[in-house]
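Query structure, 327 tokens:
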């Protein structure tokens, strides 16, 4: 979380390594095989915090209290799902994730903001990369609906798809510039989101994430101007399908399209707007009550709408409106 939650100073490398070793020894016994501490580049001089990714569990609330007690922690804060502590003067953040996402969340969080840089590359393909791996972003036509369809949680496969050297990532990086060199080696990397739009959210992020700011400085100072041609995002779908056949992405998309078509059929036969046309003056709380009552009168309301003639649906609406008005 950037190490700023408790307003603590950055910790020199030697002190950090001693605390990390202590935490590892403890967690090896407390949570064997169920935690990961993301890696950092070799000459990193100091640290704002330590991140610990842990496999979530039903009793995590109790376990995290035990961890704090055993490590002598007296300062803690829970922000969303993150449990932040102060361990020997170092902000130590625990990130619980479902066990199946443990390794990919770890990969995403290694080497500062590398995961975010990879995620930025993925956007050109209508892909999303994050703590749950690689997903295809499905969007319905003319609406705000979107669904993240899982593609893979295999980081090596993700690197291969993007033209990144997974072996080099595994070996680690001696310095932050070496990390940056690795990122821009992708044939799909573009400087555009970093150098072109001065008011972009990425620029705002650079104001609070020093690694992003240093990456922008690195690109400018070295005169890097990679701008590979960008096709329509949807044009890359065949490439994604071929690269990850086991994801059944085509099947996932077809199921989303079928759900979209079903939704359109339902909305055409029943909606709040249609109810208001049938019952002039009905709006607000009264409209909501009618819709709730009507839906609650069927075990499978949507199935009923699809199977019932429009005239019958309209009749039920007007009859219920009259009944509620009489009450």
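Result returned for the query:
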């Amino acid at each position: 979380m950037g190490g700023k939650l408790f307003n603590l100073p950055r910790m020199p490398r030697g002190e950090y390594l001693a605390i990390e070793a202590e935490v590892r020894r403890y967690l090896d016994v407390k949570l064997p095989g169920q935690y990961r501490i993301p890696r950092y580049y070799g000459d990193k001089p100091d640290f704002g915090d330590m991140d610990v990714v842990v496999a979530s569990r039903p009793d995590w609330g109790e376990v995290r209290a035990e961890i704090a007690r055993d490590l002598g922690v007296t300062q803690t804060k829970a922000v969303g799902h993150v449990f932040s502590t102060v361990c020997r003067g170092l902000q130590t953040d625990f990130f619980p994730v479902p066990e199946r996402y443990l390794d990919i969340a770890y990969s995403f969080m290694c080497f500062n903001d590398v995961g975010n840089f990879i995620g930025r590359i993925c956007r050109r393909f209508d892909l999303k990369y994050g703590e749950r791996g690689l997903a295809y972003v499905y969007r319905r036509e003319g609406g705000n609906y979107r669904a993240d369809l899982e593609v893979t949680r295999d980081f090596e496969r993700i690197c291969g798809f993007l033209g990144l050297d997974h072996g080099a990532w595994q070996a680690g990086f001696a310095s932050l510039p070496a990390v940056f060199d690795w990122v821009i080696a992708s044939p799909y990397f573009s400087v555009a989101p970093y150098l072109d739009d001065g008011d972009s959210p990425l620029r705002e992020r650079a104001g609070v994430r020093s690694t992003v700011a240093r990456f922008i400085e690195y690109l400018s100072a070295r005169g890097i101007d990679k701008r590979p041609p960008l096709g329509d995002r949807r044009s890359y779908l065949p490439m994604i399908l071929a690269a990850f056949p086991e994801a059944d992405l085509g099947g996932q998309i077809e199921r989303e399209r079928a759900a979209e078509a079903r939704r359109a059929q339902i909305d055409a036969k029943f909606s709040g707007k249609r109810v208001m046309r049938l019952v002039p003056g009905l709006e607000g709380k009264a409209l909501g009550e009618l819709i709730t009552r009507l839906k609650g009168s069927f075990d499978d309301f949507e199935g009923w709408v699809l199977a019932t003639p429009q005239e019958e649906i309209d009749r039920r609406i007007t009859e219920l409106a009259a009944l509620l008005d009489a009450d």
